[in-house]
């Protein structure tokens, strides 16, 4: 009945919730909190299942945040390029 328990992904889930994408981080935290409880009760399969679920939600939160940041950066580059292309060179001629 021994063995090593699975990684609970609690710290990465908390960090993903704070810094990345909280809608996916919160289920990661909830699943991570159940890992050790299930392991100590003797439900090793359940502990591995919750560990996998915590990992899945943590990675989804991370990749969702990366995707959002990439879209924001692309959006700003497009806006900057559009603003720079609308600025033309104007010649001023003075007729005195």
Tell me about this structure.
This protein has 96 residues and is mainly α. The chain has one domain (10-86). The chain is 76% helix and 0% strand. The longest helix has 43 residues, at 44-86. The radius of gyration is 25 Å and the shape is rod-shaped.
Relevant terms:
mainly alpha; 3 helices; 96 residues
List the helices and strands and how they pair.
Elements: H1 10-19, H2 22-41, H3 44-86
Helix pairs in contact: 1-2, 1-3, 2-3
Number of helices, counting only DSSP H or I runs of 4 residues or more:
3
Helix coverage percent: over 70%
Oligomer: single chain
Number of strands: 0
User: What do the pLDDT scores average to?
Assistant: 90
The outline comes out as: rod-shaped
The biggest sheet, with number of strands, parallel, antiparallel or mixed sense and barrel status, is: none
Give, in order, the helices and strands. Answer: HHH
In the predicted model, the low-confidence regions spanning at least 5 consecutive residues are none
What is the terminal separation in angstroms? 99 Å
Structural class: mainly alpha
Strand percent estimate:
under 5%
How many structural domains does the protein architecture include?
1
Query: If you compute it from the alpha carbons, what radius of gyration comes out, rounded to the nearest whole angstrom?
Result: 25 Å
